[in-house]
Specification:
Layout lengths: L14 H9 L5 H7 L3 H11 L3 H16 L4 H9 L5 H5 L3 H14 L7 H16 L1
Helix pairs in contact: 2-4, 3-4, 5-7, 7-8
Length: 132
């Protein structure tokens, strides 16, 4: 099992905001998710680091995806190539479209595609998260 991805793996966070998050002690995306769990906490965090709550929501969306199945760098690279940066991007796909996009992205990157079972597992986990 992989560790929670570091905060630096969030692609949507500008460098200055990333430095502020790290200064707050949010070194992993898991810690970021914990601190931004409720709307009130997201507003407080946005105020603390001088950004808009929309930014926090976007970063949280990406952190949810990265922590979905403890993605590694290669999985993140494939999903980015597929145009899936956050959980909302995944949820906007059907299971078939998601699998197709992931497989096409892996092919484009000349990377090993995740198994059909792994892709379905990611999709199913995303659906469960949406229901929470």
């Amino acid at each position: 099992m992989q560790a929670m991805p570091p905060t630096e793996t969030l692609q949507r966070v500008p460098t200055v905001a990333l430095e502020r998050l790290l200064h707050q002690g949010l070194f992993t995306t898991g810690l970021f998710l914990e601190v931004s769990e409720t709307r009130t906490r997201r507003i407080y965090l946005a105020d603390q680091i001088g950004v808009d709550i929309t930014d926090i929501n976007d970063w949280r969306d990406e952190a949810l995806l990265l922590n979905l199945a403890n993605f590694g760098i290669e999985e993140q690279r494939i999903l980015t190539q597929a145009g899936i940066i956050g959980l909302s991007d995944l949820l906007a796909c059907t299971a078939e479209e998601f699998a197709r996009r992931v497989n096409e992205a892996a092919y484009t990157l000349d990377a090993e595609a995740p198994t059909a079972l792994t892709i379905q597992g990611w999709y199913d986990q995303a659906q469960v998260l949406e229901e929470d």
